[in-house]
Amino acid sequence: MSPGRQPWLSLQGLVSTFIRILGPTSSLVYPSCLQTPWNKTFGTRPRREKAEVPLSVQSLRFLQLELSEMEAFVNQHKSKAIKRQTVITTMTTLKKNLADEDAMSCLVLGTENKELLVLDPEAFTVLTKMSLPSVPVFLEISGQFDVEFRLAAACRNGNIYILRRDSKHPKYCIELRAQPVGLVRVHKVLVVGSTQDSLHGFTHKGKKLWTVQMPAPILTMNLLEQRSRGLQAVMAGLANSEVRIYRDKALLNVIRTPDAVTSLCFGRYGREDNTLIMTTKGGGLIIKILKRTAVFVEGGGEVGPPPAQSMKLSVPRKTRLYVDQTLREREAGTAMHRTFQTDLYLLRLRAARAYVQALESSLSPVSATAREPLKLHAVVQGLGPTFKLTLHLQNTSMARPIVGLLICFLYNQAFYALPRAFFKVPLLVPGLSYPLETFVESLSDKGISDSIKVLVLREGQAAPLLSAHVNMPVSEGLAAA
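Given the sequence above, the corresponding C-alpha cells read:
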C-alpha cells in the first residue's frame, strides 16, 4: 500500500472479497460500513444501531478484527452459513383457542433483537412474528390466538407498546417517566410499576387512570386472582421487606417478611387453591396459604380522595327568580362589584375609627399602655332581683406589682342600686387574677334591663386606664311578681 493511500481503501477490497465468498446471504451491509474511514474507535454498537440489516455475530467479529487478521477470518468461515442467533429476554403464554384453565396455550417469546415470537404448542414453529422499537422485558397478554388477543410489552426504552392480533407493529404507545419494573393486567387495567417507587394504572389505549406512591422501591410484581370470590389484585414486593396488595388504588393488605421479596407467585399449590409463594433476596422460600374464609377489605391506607367526594349533591332546580338574578348580575356585574368594594372600604374605615376611639378613651377591657398592663373581665350571676357582679382584675406585667387603683361603676340609678359604686383596689401581684365581688339590685318591674359601665382609674387621674360594659340580664323575680 502506497504511503498516500487511505486505510479504508484496502478495507474496501477485503470486504468485497468477503462478500463475494459468502454470497448475498450475508447480513453485512457493505455501503454503510464503508461510508467513513476505518478507525479503531468504530465498535459493534454503531454498526448494530445504524445498519439497514441487523448484523450477525460473525459480521460483528469481522468488523472488530485488525486488517492483517481479516483475510484469515474470511478463509476460515467462508464455508459456514451465516446465522443470526438471539437471546430470549421474556416469555409468557397465550391461550390457543379456548379460555379454559387447562386449555392449550402458545408460548410467546420476547427476544433481544426487538421481536415477539408466538410458537405453536405442538410443532414449536413460529406462528407469527411482531417487531418492536425496543427490546421487550415484560409481557402481558389477554385473549386467544385464534380469536382475538391484545398484547402489552414493556421495553427497555421506558415505553409500553400495545399490539393486536393482526398488527405486526405497535398500535398504541404508553410513555413512562421512568423505567418499568413490572407489568400486570388487572381486568381491563394495565398496572405498571416504575423505578420512581410508584404504581400507575393505564387503559389499553394508553390513558392514565391513577397513580399510587410506594414507601420503598418496587422489586417484583405479580397478579393475585381469587376465582372463588372474583377478586383480582396486584401484588408488589418492596425493598423494605413488605408485600403490598392493591385493588386499583385501594390498599387491601400488607404482608411483612423477614427479608426483601424478589419474586412472587400466587395460585394452586397441592390441594390449596390460593397459595402465595415468595423467594427472598437472601435465598429464602416463604409459603403462605390464604384462608378459605378470608375476605379482603379496603384498609385505612387507601390513597385518593375520600368517598364522600364522589357523592352526587342534591342541587335544587333553578327558579325564575334565580334566572332573573343571574341575568342581572351578568349585565351589571362591574357596577355591583364596585359598589361592594366601596361598602367594604367604608366598613373597614368605620371599624378602624371605632378601634382608635376605644383605645384613646380606654373603653376596651385590656389596657393599651405598657406602663399599666391590666386585664378586666366581668361576670354576672343570679336570676334577680339581686345579681352578683364579679370583676376579675389581673396584672399582666412580668415582675412589677401595681398599687393605687380605683374601681368606679356608672349606671342608671332608676334601674339599679349598688351598695358601693366606688372602692379601692388592693395591691395586684403580677400574674394573679383578683376577683372583686359586689351586688347589684334591680329596681325596675317592667322587665327591662340596662348596661353598667365599669371603670378602672388611677388615683389622681381623670382618664380611665380601661373599662368594661356589663349587659345586665332581665330580672325574673320582679317580672314574675
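The first strand starts at residue 88 and ends at 95. Try to locate this feature in the C-alpha cell string yourself.
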